[in-house]
Amino acid sequence: MLNIIIFGPPGSGKGTQSARIVEKYKLKHLSTGDLFREEMENNTPLGREVRKYIDTGHLVPDEIALRELYNRASKHMDSPGFIFDGFPRTIVQAEALDSMLEERGIPICLVISVEVAEEELFKRIMGRGEDSGRSDDNEKIVRRRLQVYKEQTMPLISYYKEQGKFVAINGMAPVDQVFAKICHAIDTYRESQKVIPVVE
Ligand code: ADP
Predict the structure, then answer these.
(1) Which ligand 1 atom is at minimum distance from the Cα of 149?
(2) Which terminus of the chain, N or C, has less C-beta within 10 A?
(3) CATH 3.40.50.300 fits 4-199, yes or no
(4) Domains of the chain: which residue ranges?
């Protein structure tokens, strides 16, 4: 299985790039943010529960994020791989994901980090706020989301660097160029995994 985490702050373009990766590599897209927004739109009990965190720019508690991610992932175990988007967001989530995948013998292959300068992130999210319709795309909340990212999610960078899985991509470039670099990272990984035939 090709399991990839697309990593980066809010506004880095993870969603856009995930859609392209899914199309090219036929992976199953697992986005906890999309999942929660769907629940909020349908006004389910889970949607009502997570709204208070999302609309204030905080993270949904780990146990909820983990439970929902597992439920969704377990329905698609037959897919050629997963792209995790917006998950994991804390060390607790990363450790839990690692044990879940290792138990099944399908570990994370690559963590692709889309890197964008903070002021650009802010501009992009505020720009999309008008048409995204997202209740968490307003100035005060966006600042908090970026702060939460720094405090709770950035520690994952060293976590995955230590595992040798971390690849940084410049996310300030045009969408096509960012995608080309991501494909290069994925293809290089796949090449490196090929068993070299023994020549006798
Ligand atoms: P963005 O990357 O723009 O912040 P997401 O769609 O990934 O957007 O997430 C939106 C919100 O959903 C987050 O601010 C957070 O409140 C919640 N959320 C999404 N994924 C997780 C997660 N793995 N753990 C906790 N909260 C999450």
Answers:
(1) 4
(2) C
(3) yes
(4) 4-199
pTM of the prediction? 0.93
Q: Are 20 and 179 in contact (CB under 8 A)?
A: yes
Name the token pair of 11. Answer: 């506004």
Tokens standing for residue 38: 């769907």
User: Are 87 and 30 a contacting pair, CB within 8 Å?
Assistant: yes
Calculate how far, in angstroms, residue 33's C-alpha sits from the geometric centre of ligand 1: 5
Q: Is residue 158 within 8 Å of 168, Cβ to Cβ?
A: no
Query: What pLDDT digit, counting tens, does each position of 125-161 carry?
Result: 888 767 777 788 888 899 999 999 999 999 999 999 9
Ligand 1 pocket test target in 6, 54, 132 with most atoms within 8 Å of CB: 54
Round to whole Å and give the CA distance between 79 and 63: 25
164: left (phi over 0), alpha (psi -120 to 50) or beta: left
| Per-residue CA distances from 56 to 68, 129, 142 (Å) | 20, 15, 9
- Catalytic residue list: 14, 89, 128, 134, 145
